[in-house]
């Protein structure tokens, strides 16, 4: 087998040090440790990733505790699966997996796990390009284990499952196949495309959590719109929930969103917020045009986090008011929008040109306009706290928004005229 010792030099110095520490502790315990999965695949493709996944022929939990004892940090363990995460101080986490064999009681079930060999562990994986393992042992450091000819499939540029039952055992692999296909521009093998067709019928057996996780992962990718379109081409949407929309306009809208993120003036999360922001943005631009009943149907299947669900609901309701009546005062817009999530406001501005002008004014001007008068001001004037406070403050701010007052002196004068009216 080839040796990838030189390829491992592409890893960061910190990653190389961490692998050395893992190898040393594994050797002391009489275990063998292997770097596996996506990071090996990406090393061969020339762009190493950041996730360090280690398979241990021995006991990954015991190895994690040994690493904490010798080098500090923290260990999080999962006894049911024989896995652990080592979090060294000031370094990336390392996932440690006890080599295991998996069986599926029925299609789409979570696997039943038993201890196994390295060969067992590689055979349980999804695609050949993810079955590569590199030895970290001092005696054969860098030795590549490739029982499923994953290196050949990487060179050929193809996505291939390991056995005909793979997509039925775990229908989430359909989504991952599409994700890898579009990320690497590796076509799904023709035989796999045939296997995917009958496996689609088992998607409904996936839990909401597992299914939405796959969509979340897709929407965090740079080529997310292409991945969604490929799922649509394969007829996957109808097996997720039959109201999921797709057309050329949606594809164009999502592509545009990734080319140019919203201006910070919209009050959204900043670009440095990273992938969760991209995910939420694409969900909003994709699903907001649905009616409220359709959104509820999608939510019932995917169980969205509350923030995303509220954005979709608010955006759909606002969009349904299109076209907005002309001549609405700024104060009326503020009253309508001040409890609407900023992402919903931005999304509707993209979807509806009729809304775009006032929504932009709200985001950039109106929501920042506030009166100087407060409850304390009213209390100092001798007004007893009660419903009048809210009425007076609302009237004053509306006057400011609508251009009826401009200066602090004008606000004070209007306040004096309002006190007799509301008290």
Q: Could you describe the 3D structure shown?
A:
This protein has four domains: 7-156, Beta Polymerase, domain 2 (2-Layer Sandwich), CATH 3.30.460; 158-242, Hydrophobic Seed Protein; 261-368, no CATH class; 375-422, no CATH class. The termini are far apart. By secondary structure, it is α+β, with helices and mostly antiparallel strands. The chain has a seven-stranded mixed beta sheet. It has a two-stranded antiparallel ribbon with strand order 6-7. The longest helix is centred in the N-terminal third of the chain and has 16 residues, at 13-28. Helix content is 52%, strand content 9%.
Write a concise synopsis of the structure shown.
The protein has helices at 13-28, 38-45, 60-71, 118-123, 150-156, 166-169, 172-184, 190-199, 208-219, 224-233, 237-240, 248-259, 275-287, 292-302, 306-319, 330-337, 342-351, 353-364, 375-380, 387-401, 408-422; strands spanning 32-36, 52-57, 74-78, 83-87, 94-98, 100-103, 112-115, 133-135, 144-145.
Question: What order do the helices and strands come in, and which of them pair?
Answer:
Elements: H1 13-28, E1 32-36, H2 38-45, E2 52-57, H3 60-71, E3 74-78, E4 83-87, E5 94-98, E6 100-103, E7 112-115, H4 118-123, E8 133-135, E9 144-145, H5 150-156, H6 166-169, H7 172-184, H8 190-199, H9 208-219, H10 224-233, H11 237-240, H12 248-259, H13 275-287, H14 292-302, H15 306-319, H16 330-337, H17 342-351, H18 353-364, H19 375-380, H20 387-401, H21 408-422
Parallel strand pairs: 2-5
Antiparallel strand pairs: 1-2, 1-8, 3-4, 4-5, 6-7, 8-9
């Amino acid at each position: 087998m080839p040796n990838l010792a030189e390829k491992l030099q592409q890893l960061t110095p910190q990653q190389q040090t961490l692998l050395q520490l893992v190898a040393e502790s594994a050797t002391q315990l009489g275990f063998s440790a292997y770097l596996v999965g996506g990071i090996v695949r990406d090393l061969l493709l020339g762009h190493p990733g950041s996730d360090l996944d280690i398979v241990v022929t021995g006991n990954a939990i015991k190895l994690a505790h040994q690493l904490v004892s010798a080098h500090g940090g923290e260990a999080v363990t999962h006894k049911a699966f024989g896995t652990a995460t080592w979090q060294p101080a000031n370094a990336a986490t390392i996932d440690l997996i006890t080599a295991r064999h998996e069986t599926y009681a029925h299609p789409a079930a979570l696997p039943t796990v038993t201890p196994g060999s390295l060969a067992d562990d590689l055979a349980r994986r999804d695609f050949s390009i993810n079955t590569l393992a590199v030895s970290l042992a001092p005696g054969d450091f860098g030795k590549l284990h490739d029982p499923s000819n994953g290196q050949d499939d990487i060179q050929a540029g193809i996505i291939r499952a390991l056995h005909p039952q793979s997509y039925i055992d775990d229908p989430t692999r359909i989504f991952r196949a599409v994700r890898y296909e579009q990320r690497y521009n590796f076509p799904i093998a023709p035989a796999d495309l045939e296997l995917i067709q009958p496996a689609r019928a088992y998607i409904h057996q996936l839990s909401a959590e597992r299914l939405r996780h796959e969509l979340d992962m897709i929407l965090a990718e740079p080529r997310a719109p292409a991945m969604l379109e490929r799922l649509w081409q394969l007829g996957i949407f109808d097996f997720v929930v039959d109201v999921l929309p797709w057309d050329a306009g949606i594809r164009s809208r999502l592509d545009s969103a990734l080319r140019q993120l919203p201006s910070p003036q919209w009050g959204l999360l900043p670009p440095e917020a990273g992938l969760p922001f991209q995910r939420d943005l694409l969900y909003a631009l994709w699903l907001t045009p649905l009616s409220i009943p359709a959104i509820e149907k999608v939510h019932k299947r995917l169980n969205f986090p509350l923030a995303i669900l509220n954005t979709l609901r608010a955006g759909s309701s606002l969009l349904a008011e299109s076209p907005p009546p002309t001549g609405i005062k700024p104060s009326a817009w503020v009253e309508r929008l001040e409890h609407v999530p900023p992402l919903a406001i931005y999304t509707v501005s993209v979807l509806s040109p009729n809304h775009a002008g006032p929504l932009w004014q709200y985001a950039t001007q109106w929501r920042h306009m506030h009166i100087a008068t407060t409850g304390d001001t009213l209390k100092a004037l001798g007004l007893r706290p009660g419903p009048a406070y809210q009425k007076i403050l609302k009237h004053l701010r509306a006057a400011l928004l609508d251009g009826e007052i401009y200066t602090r002196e004008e606000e004070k004068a209007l306040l004096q005229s309002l006190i007799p009216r509301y008290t």
